[in-house]
Amino acid sequence: MTVAVSEDPSLAKKFRGSVVFQMDDGEAIFVDFKATPAMVQTLEESSKPPKADLTVKTNLKTMQLLLIKKLTPQQAFMKRKLKLKGNMGLAMKLNALLAATRKQLPTSKL
Questions:
Q1: pTM above 0.85, yes or no
Q2: What is the distance between the alpha carbons of residues 84 and 103, in angstroms, rounded to a whole number?
């Protein structure tokens, strides 16, 4: 996600906010598009995540399914595998962030 955010400046124009992805295991990823340049920070279990415009709570398995496009954010939300708190307008733009991250993932040659 770090590479995707830093290499795609158009994401900051689309998003214009900050997001915290909180995993069930306690790990969190803070993405801040308000900062110039946009910033991605991995937070440890012991640290409290900063205040964000949108908080996304999920587990690692669901996050992996979102990244490999086996599940859309809308499907995950409807199945209650994704909990959202905050700016729902930003939540509708999660696909753009996930798509940019997918481009950076290694592809299988099988």
A1: no
A2: 24
Q: What is the pLDDT of residues 54-73, one digit of tens each?
A: 999 999 999 999 988 899 88
- What gap in Å lies between CA 79 and CA 109, rounded to an integer? 32
Q: Is 110 a residue whose pLDDT tops 80?
A: no
| H-type alpha helices, the chain | 2-7, 10-15, 60-67, 73-78, 88-91, 94-104
Closest by alpha carbon to 32, among 45, 44, 43, 16? 16
Residue 7 token pair: 């290499």
Cβ atoms 49, 28 nearer than 8 A: yes
CA angle 88, 85, 103 (to 5 degrees): 65
| Cβ atoms of 83 and 94 closer than 8 Å | no
